[in-house]
Amino acid sequence: MEIYIVDWISLIVRWLHVITGIAWIGASFYFMWLDNSLEEPPQWKKDKGIKGDLWAVHGGGIYEVAKYQGAPEKMPEHLHWFKWEAYSTWLTGMVLLAVIYYLGAESYLIDRRVADLNQLQAIGLGLGFLLGSWIAYTVLCISPLAKNGWLLAAVLLTLGGALAWGLSQFFSGRGAYIHFGAIIGTIMVGNVFQVIMPGQRKLVGALESGETPNPDWGARAKLRSTHNTYLTLPLLFIMISNHYPMTYGHAFNWAVLLAIVVITAVSRQYFVLRHVHIHRPAILGAAIAATVILAVWIAPKPAVTTGSALAADKLAMRAQSIIGERCSSCHAAMPTDEVFTTPPGGVMLDSVEQMQQWAPRIKARSIDSHDMPFMNKTNMTDEERAIVAQWISAGSPAT
Ligand code: HEC
């Protein structure tokens, strides 16, 4: 019952997280596009202090957008700020992290094949990585290093690699990936909260009192919003990565993560340039080529059959009993596992027909990657995997 309630909380918070995340990233994509699509206004608008002009049609109406050089003639009564999208995405994300990975640490965060942690240690480490990384990033951004944007980026990327490796030494593959994502998200929202918003508040304050805004505010905000731009696509990948065990389940999952972060950040560059009418399809081409190389590199190796191959009739029986023994505590109409009380992913392996039906996915999850049994909770051995592999490659016969 308790787990049933937690599942509902998780469902509702995840739903909110996706909604607020769409609103946040959507608004940020929109403003990037807007800024880069502004055209030179006619003279009468220039005389009013407008430096960029844009017309659009959407939802049955024509919109006129004007970007001012400084303050408008009269400050509007209602000025819309875009911040709660970011804050609420972070807040719901932290609740999800706590509900799924901290409350459920034994299931999702701790993998005893990686490190023998208890729940408290795992949570402490997770929060420590989060806070520590955010502090390190903040210090680097206000250090003299920040004067050279490229050098800073190189240092951050190196530290990011070290972080990915470090997380993979303590947590399950999923746990490591989600923490890396939570850290990126925290840095991005922190940038909005600590730098971008205060800068805008000062800007608006100065405009309201007729002063010239200090250009330093803009420069500082610019660095952080540039970081946010390049972190967006990696962040979104990480948030969907837990559907793809070939990434987080790989022996070098930290290197795979780093490779995907670089590839997705570089693909962003294509869109950044396209917004200013520079077309560099080679960037996307390189990103696609790198993805193919990565996919080939992490492709599952053919399973090695250890020992003598079993005779066909024995093989079928043996493989089915292994699946029964190692998988059905969770994957059954009535699971006996204390955490997974309904068959995860809708996969039930009670009968031979069901095992045959799911054979390709059984291969993907427990042979090609060792992602199943979940955290190897039921202690499946390599020899057993080899027998199941042999059975599946023989066409998963019933007998
Ligand atoms: C301790 C519980 C547990 C055990 C034991 C377990 N699984 Fe799973 N399985 C899960 C969970 C949780 C999910 C859903 C999360 C996911 O998809 O990553 C899942 C999802 C799956 C899926 C569906 C997703 C897909 O890729 O189509 C397959 C197939 C699967 N498991 C196969 C297996 C096999 C084969 C075994 C035994 C060798 C096994 N599982 C043992 C918990 C378990």
TrEMBL record:
Transmembrane in keyword set: yes
Alphabetical UniProt keywords: Membrane, Transmembrane, Transmembrane helix
Keyword Membrane: yes
Pfam families attached to this UniProt entry: Urate_ox_N (PF06181)
InterPro entries: Cyt_c-like_dom_sf, Urate_ox_N
Protein name (Swiss-Prot/TrEMBL): Urate hydroxylase PuuD
Transmembrane segments: 12-33, 84-103, 123-142, 149-171, 177-197, 251-271, 283-300
Urate oxidase N-terminal domain location: 4-299
